Amino acid sequence: MSRKAKYFDRRFRLSLLHPKYWLTWLAVLLLLLFGVMPAWLRDPIARLLAKGVLKLATKPIGVARANLTTCFPDKSAAEIEDLIQDNVTNFVMILLAQSELLVKSRQHIRKRVQLEGLEHIEQAKAADQPVIFIMPHVWGIEYAGLRLNLELNMVSMAKAHRNNLFNWFNNRMRSSQGGNIYMREAGIRALLAELKQGRSFFYLPDEDLGPDKSVFAPFLGTTKATLPVVGRLAQAGNAQVMPVKIGYDPVKRQHQLTVMPAIAPEQMQGKENEAIALNKAVEQVILAYPEQYMWFLKILKTRPPGEKSIYS
Fold this sequence. Notes:
By secondary structure, this protein is of the alpha/beta class. The chain contains twelve helices and nine strands. Helix 2 (about 40-55) packs across helix 4 (about 75-95). The longest helix is centred in the N-terminal third of the chain and has 21 residues, at about 75-95. It is globular and about 50 Å long. The mean pLDDT is about 95.
């Protein structure tokens, strides 16, 4: 990887065959096996494995329970537990299938991911504008990114894994339709440069990046610290901002991807207004498929002054 590019190197290196990666190679081969397996066979296996995950992943499930209890104060304890079970089941089903994005054809991806709202993308294309897609951390985000990459030029940004083999494998998958995957260190300037070249990307506004420069705004049944940078980025890059939602239908064995209309620029003028608009967009996406959001993330780590941590 060159200093100038600051994106992940997709090339295979002999160092990835080192014995310290042999167990990782076994995991990768299993994922590839599940990727070529038909969904009618893979999904029932995933449901069985999910029962084991529920017993072992006590810490992440504790975080998910705290998030769900805070975001949905009207739900009973039984409803929260049911939602956690559905969430883990969807996680395992989608995770086991993801390598199909690398090993299957474009036609397969189009069939597996049904796209609605293409007209909004076409309108942006007609206006010669790239798109900043707003999507929070949902299990199907890789499917959304690669499906949209079939319709327009996309780039992305990701955090590096400590394991170099997983790093190579994940970013080979994410860039399998041609889009570069930038390292987080590349920063906003790299994304702005891509916008000016007409390339689109996802922005994930739900991550809690701490109190510095964040604004508190309503979010589901609570308030959330949100970093309002999208409005200025869109303005500087002459881009439209469109929320996107995706959910896996285990009956049809397809993902339903919906691109929603662009957020009006005036709704994001001023930091407070932008934080409200971003949180509303995230709410829309989550409420469409609440069982498929990454509830194990500490999205409410930063609390308003005087409020205790929900994770203690």
